[in-house]
Amino acid sequence: MLESDPKNQTPGQQNKDELLNIKDIIKQGSKSVPVDALLKKGYKSVNVLREDKLNGLIRQAVRNILKTYKPMSEEETAKDAQKEFFELLNRYQNLEHTKKDIETSRDELSRELTTMKEELTEENIQSVKELATWQNLQEELRQTVFGAIDSKIVALKDDHKNLCFTVDEIESVRQDFTRILNHAVEFHKLKLEELTKLEHQKTIDILQKRISKLSDALKANEDALRKIGESHIYSNQEIKLILNKVGLDASKPDYQKKIGLLKAVFDQNIELQKQKNQQQ
Predict the structure, then answer these.
(1) Residue 145 Cα distances to 84, 135, 142, 150, angstroms
(2) What is the b/e burial string over 110-148, where b = at least 16 CB atoms within 10 angstroms of the residue's CB?
(3) Which domain holds residue 43?
């Protein structure tokens, strides 16, 4: 190799030579061969490259590499960074909004449960009071009516000699009265049962109303959780880091094989979970 005079090189060439460190590159890529050995092998002449020509070839190779693997420009880098920033900002805003939705839904659930408990307690107290009232009225009716009839029958028995009715006829009248009054008591009993059913229906209506509101609150929770899942958008850089951590580098030849194995594991896990849920 013939070395050119550094004095004849331009400042730009000298800077490039220092940047590329061409001399070290040549030393690493070449091997010293004694001239005597070449002569013994029959070589009468040796082709050499001048240093400036060799430098030109190296610089051209470097330019070709840079042209082929050109990094992103500053503008492209800024756009990519801005896009990632807005993705992260959007994720943060969605998470904050979802957090408020969950807190609101939780408070709504708490209020509905408290209200339902209070209303059911109030209805239960009212039902107990009305039931006791009907039972008291029924007992009073029985005692009053039957007591009055019994007293009349006793009086009739005492004065039966002065009456044209026999004791059997009086007893028959008593039985007729008893049958009529039994029908009256049975009627009130049926009314009481209807009232009890009505109170139960009120309770059921309250429960259905509250359950409907609870379902709405639970749906709001589900929507909030769904938003959390949708809002977690990974940036390209995060995706690459995650894939590298689990050994899934798309540039590696075994990438598709690993993806297939993971899919098989996930499918098997889902199937086992379904079987477990069915057994429960």
Answers:
(1) 90, 15, 6, 9
(2) eebeeebeebeeebeeebeeeeeebeeebeeeeeebbee
(3) 6-68
Q: What is the pLDDT averaged over residues 204-220?
A: 64
| 158 and 169 belong to one structural domain | yes
Mean pLDDT (whole number) for 70-74:
62
227-265 exposure pattern, b = at least 16 Cβ within 10 A, e = fewer = bbeebeeebeeeeeeeeeeeebeeeeeeeeeeeeeeeee
pTM confidence score: 0.30
Chain CA centroid to CA 270, Å: 17
Q: Are residues 184 and 219 in the same domain?
A: yes
Q: What is the rounded distance in angstroms from the CA atom of residue 226 to the CA atom of residue 15?
A: 59
Cα atoms in the Cβ-side hemisphere of radius 13 Å centred on 176:
6
Are 194 and 255 found together in one domain?
Answer: no
* Chain CA centroid to CA 41, Å: 80
pLDDT value at residue 94: 76
Judgement on whether residues 155 and 83 belong to the same structural domain of the protein: yes
Buried/exposed code over 3-16 (b: 16+ C-beta within 10 A; e: otherwise): eeeeeebeeebeeb
Identify whether 277 is part of a domain: no
DSSP 246: T
